[in-house]
Design a protein that fits this description.
Blueprint: H1 3-7, H2 16-32, H3 42-49, H4 109-121, H5 127-132, E1 140-141, E2 147-151, H6 156-161, H7 168-180, E3 189-192, H8 212-229, E4 233-237, H9 239-246, H10 252-255, E5 260-262, E6 265-270, H11 273-278, H12 282-299, H13 305-308
Parallel strand pairs: 2-3, 2-4, 4-6
Antiparallel strand pairs: 1-3, 5-6
Helix pairs in contact: 4-8
């Protein structure tokens, strides 16, 4: 059987109207996939018109799609051959590289972090905090983060939502600072020294500073997080976070903007976002931003002229 015979529609004992109802949808589908409308063969048209109407309807249709020629693929764009000793071009991108976990290859840390998270969320080492907390605040961000922020403890809103720095200081200061560095919460990691909200005396509201004993009890959890995530730089937010992580009592004016060390990881102390909320001056905001510029330089991230000028007096 040649191609034309194989591609024809064979109708046996079918009424003319029924045959058209069967064939037309097939022709329409083919037409949609072609640049030019298909043309029926003379033989097929004669065969359709020669069929007599009959109440018995049975049809056998041979597919006609094999007769349709697919549009030719576009010719490949010629490429210039590289000259001798010429280095291949480096692809460029208008966006910065992402640091989220989907772009990373697991080195075995993910199951370990998942197990650690289960243990942290069910921790009962501090009975007073267990009885008062809504939930444990594990942390948030990428398990492959190159940058990790460390606060002191969850507040009321963090305790309710189970995520660090979701209160006003987080939304209005920390999130904006992270965005100005051209990161997102998914790119970095945020955690606290203390994983539970410090309990308040009965009848009192607000948040209190964690006690040294509470931070010392909870510190092993944070140390494990840092060891598994392996950030290139740590940023502590406020003096209490430094005290909890390093075990040293410090004043921010003595350490802010100066590189410290945590087990070989560069550590930059800066003001707590709540401090900036209470001191809304360009000078104080600039101090924190200068600390973040040092962090970006340490990480080798490009810094634009616009970024360098944030919170500077306008000329």
């Amino acid at each position: 059987m040649n191609n034309r015979e194989r591609d024809q529609v064979t109708v046996r004992e079918v009424g003319f109207e029924e045959a058209l109802d069967t064939v037309m949808p097939i022709l329409r589908d083919i037409k949609k996939s072609l640049r030019r409308a298909p043309k029926a063969t003379r033989t097929s048209l004669e065969q359709l018109t020669s069929v007599k109407a009959t109440p018995k309807v049975t049809a056998e249709i041979t597919p006609i799609s094999s007769s349709v020629k697919k549009p030719a693929a576009p010719a490949p764009i010629p490429t210039r051959s590289a000259a001798p000793n010429e280095k291949p071009a480096t692809p460029t991108s208008t966006t910065r590289a992402s640091h989220s976990s989907k772009d990373q290859v697991d080195d075995g840390r993910l199951p370990k972090l998942e197990e650690l998270k289960k243990n942290i969320l069910t921790c009962t080492r501090c009975p007073n905090l267990v009885s008062s907390r809504t939930q444990v605040v594990y942390g948030v961000g990428s398990p492959f983060a190159e940058l990790m922020f460390v606060g002191e403890a969850p507040g009321e809103e963090e305790d309710l939502r189970g995520e660090p720095f979701v209160g006003r200081s987080g939304r209005e200061v920390l999130d904006k600072m992270i965005a100005a560095m051209e990161y997102t919460r998914n790119d970095i990691f945020i955690a606290n020294v203390l994983k539970c909200r410090p309990d308040m005396p009965e009848g009192e509201s607000g948040n209190r500073k964690p006690k040294p004993a509470e931070m010392a009890t909870c510190l092993p959890w944070l140390r494990e997080q840092i060891a598994l995530i392996k950030p290139k730089v740590l940023v502590t937010l406020g003096a209490t976070a430094i005290e909890g992580l390093l075990g040293e009592s410090v004043t921010m004016r003595d350490v802010r903007g100066k590189w410290l060390d945590y087990n070989g990881v560069p550590l930059m102390p800066t003001y707590h976002p709540a401090y900036i909320l209470r001191n809304q001056t360009m000078a104080e905001k600039r101090k924190v931003w200068e600390d973040m510029l040092l962090v970006m330089e340490k990480l080798g991230r490009p810094i634009s002229a616009k970024q360098r000028s944030y919170f500077l007096p306008k000329a």
